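Closing statement on the iron/sulfur cluster sub-project.
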Amino acid sequence: MTTQPSVKTVTVTVDGVSLSVPEGTLLVEAAKQIQEDIPVYCYHTKLGPAGLCRICLVEIEKMPKLQIACNTVVTDGMVVHTASDKTMEGRRAVLEFLLLNHPLDCPICDKGGECDLQDFSMAYGQGASRKVEAKVAKPKAVDLGPTIVLDEERCIVCQRCVRFDDIITQERSLVVKDRGHRDIIATSTEEPYVSDFSGNVTELCPVGALTSKTYRFKSRPWDLNRTKTTCTQCSVGCQLYVDERYGDVLRTMSVAEDETSDGWLCDRGRYNIGFYNDPQRIASPLLRRGDEWEQIGWDDAVALWARQIREARDTTGPESIGVIGGGRLLNEEAFLLQHLFRSLGVENLDWRAGRQTVATPVFSGTYEELEAAQTILVFGVPPSQTAPVMDLRIRKAVVQRGARLVTVGPHSSGSSVTETHVRRVADIPSDAFDAERIAVVFDGIDATPMRDLHERFAELKRAGKSLIGFIPGEQPNARGAEAMGMLPRDGGRGTREVFSAAKDGGIRVLSLFGVNPALRFADGALATAALERTPFIVLSELFLTDTARFASLVLPAHGPFERDGHVLDMTGRVQRLFAAHAAPGGALSDGEMLVALADALDIEIPSPSALTARARAPEKRAMPRGEIRAAAPGGEAALRVIIRSDIFAGGGTVYHDERLEELRPRPIATLHPRTAQALGVAAGDLVDVIAGDRALRGLIVRVADAASEGTIRVVDGLPGAPANVLFDGEEVQVTKLEPAAPLAAAGAVAG
Amino acid sequence: MLRAVIAGFVAILAGFRTTFGYLFVKKPTIAYPSIKKQHAPRFHGLHELRRYADGKERCIGCELCQIACPANAIVVVGAENTPADRRSPGERYAARYEIDELRCIFCGLCEEACPTDAIVLTPRFEMSDYRRGSFVYAKDRLLVPPQGGVGSAPDERPNGIPADLGAVAQQKSTVDIATGYDATWYGRALKTERRGLAG
Ligand code: SF4
Ligand code: SF4
Ligand code: SF4
Ligand code: SF4
Ligand code: FES
């Protein structure tokens, strides 16, 4: 970090207490030093002052009128009274004004119990209304988009939502329409409000105007059990509060002071909470009997598993045993997993089960450093879909700190901020490397650009520049799994080699932990063939995923909020998880399963405290470099496929969360208008995407100007339309299906 | 000094007059259940969840009674009214409403907290049963039947809060308490039932 030039301090007296604060501090912030909370509505630490609501009025000596504390910069010798009679009278009048047209039915309002308007009315309001005229009626329960419902009558027009959408996400779809007492919040285009960060506005809204569809009218804050834990939907590692009631996770809330998330959450992390009590969740170990599943007890399940492992080791040797998993486990569990199997001589251990091949960058940095970078280079899949909250940091760096964003690869980030998009490493503008602080964001998939730039990076390092790397991968704890040793060593095989061996019948027992290679592995055909040929597959999962089709034994595991332990976020920071929800009685955590297995196999395992110590202090060791992908068959290709992540894709928790119905991506193929024309397809058509003998069938065509010409973009990880039958970047043909069903056309329009 | 002692003693005697007086009063023995004691006008008995005269539920599922209850006896889970299925005025209604009458200490704080006069303690006091579980009264037993509503429902604006708010006391005193639990629809039904059984 750079050292700030020393700032002059000024002395200000607030309610008789003299404070010294840096010059330029806002009065409202200065007052926080003495816990003197000045009421605010429109002001927010991260959004800055707006001066709209006037509730923060305070009396300042030598000033004739009350001043707003949120937009007054303290000056030396300023004397402020935040509780004088004059101040109180000012607040009372402001509240009376705000309540003129505000409905007085807090018991119905969803915000009741945690509403600033309620609280300040209690503290400073006048108790009864003097208004006898009817209140202005505005639309109620306005459907603002797939996640948000708006009550226009309750809005006090503080514009926090509008400013969040403007300043933080840079998406600018929310606006204030009309003026005076008729003003309402709406989207500028009259289109639904769609954003991957929409849930944050419900938290910012100081009143009950903006509400989440998933939580609306479900509970009161005082009836919720709150647990602070870490979100493990992606590798950012945001802290969040989980609010649960009667065994149902009702909502999640951001942690304002959290350094990881900067106080925001993305909608995947916030809303993907409805699967815990899904009836399809596996409730006891399942053993395959032909095409049927038989429920068995844990003792039998573990005994069978242990027997299979022992037999395989004793007959065909430890090379015929494979283990894939770790990226969704806790550090403790990942360590235990590799310890247990290494004790048996098994070296075929790998966390990689999708496209990502590496999780630990060579030079780590913190999110704060990312924000301070002057040049941000993004390689491959843009982080907006794989690490959304980190993308907000990038947007902040670009907009508020003037950083330069360069995206490299087939994907332009589609970010709401200005970017320079180049296709090849060689096209990166050379002045991009002139900056002092450079951040590299790499999707962890194809390490070719990293290899190409290796010399360059070494040079920059030698020149004493700050160079930091981030790998926002697919699995939340991939970095933890690497640090805990879930990687093949000493001649062990990685996932790809295990699958190749399995395809030829070389693997007898495969244990999978929370991974779904049938849907997610980069080479879907290989994964499927391998899983088909493996005689005994054990899968620890929450649901019967695509991979469960091949499993002989499925073990019910604990979900994200049901776990207690540690993970590493992508910057390598240790994050703590606390169980916020009780797992179903029939499920065991992966750790408990492993302890039972170790017991059945007579393997000595570390004590719980040693395990925790281990999980908290990840060993720093040299990590293997990412895989270099064979370059896409060179030369001219009429059409190449781009496989793209979507935050709401996946065959597990999102797929089984009925509250997310509307947010799940549809099987869509996106084309540039000219490409679509050349192929003779139009929006709404159904097409098959074919490469050799492999095909991805029944996609709905969407035409977008933002797509690159000569490419067809498909969504990864959709059950029913597994994009991993194709290779990212390979040449494909498109055939149109006749006739396009009208239903699909409607879907394409909505999607 | 002595005068003060005497004065104090007299004061104590005066204070105990009521207490001692009862030594000489005839002991009442009420031949329950054929005769029922008359309760005080605002006796706190079994709850009922009221409706408006038009049949809409008064309860808006606000959970204020739940937080007010010192015995933790109430469970309320709110839900949203839909135009097709409108249970109460305003947007919110109680999808689940339960009172554990064994936990309840009949303090009436729920009634006091209720912003719509929905939950009311009736004079009905007979609710013995053989199983604990049957003391958890859910909406099926708490809610008065559709024709038993009182008061006119508020308009959608001002948003579900009744204009006659706070009229509980008055409503209760209009109730005929002379016959014990005759005050509520339940009372009447129960009594009829009993009569049938007895006869
Ligand atoms: S909807 Fe809420 S956050 Fe937005 S302007 Fe209105 S009161 Fe403020
Ligand atoms: S960015 Fe990642 S960690 Fe943060 S809330 Fe979203 S899914 Fe969870
Ligand atoms: S009467 Fe008192 S104890 Fe009983 S439910 Fe109401 S608030 Fe709770
Ligand atoms: S009975 Fe009254 S206080 Fe209780 S939830 Fe219903 S409206 Fe609210
Ligand atoms: S907080 Fe100061 S004007 Fe709104």
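The CA atoms of residues 136 and 181 of chain A lie 8 Å apart. With this model delivered, the sub-project is considered complete and its resources will be redirected to Aim 3.
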